[in-house]
Amino acid sequence: MSDPDKDRSETESSTVCQLTFTSADQRFSGTALVLVQGDTEEEAARRKAAKTECLGIATVAAVPNGYSAYRTCEQNNGERVNGSVVAAKGNRWTHLSVFTSVPAGAEAAAAIAYAQDMAGKLAELAMTLTESKEAGA
Hints:
single chain, alpha+beta, 2 helices
């Protein structure tokens, strides 16, 4: 964070964004909601990730290398599904959800797998963001 708020240290930054997407094969489209927050200590980030509610039903996922917390959830609402990740790595933690449509004639399981894969990839990107002082970067 280049210009922190007066009463906030650089390590206590946060970013919230919403992304819309269509997969390369155009089978899936939807929205990703991302929250990334920094904390002063790794343990504090891990505790926040551990306390944050994951959207949907918990699923089994291996904890990637370097993460102090990593949970995944899924939710099936018929025509739309979502995959969510709550994770902590270093002094950052993230909570993100990928909502996508279920293509006509497709199984919801395929859409859930796509959403979970995308959520995991976005979590890794969120944990490795670097500071940029360029406008619009």
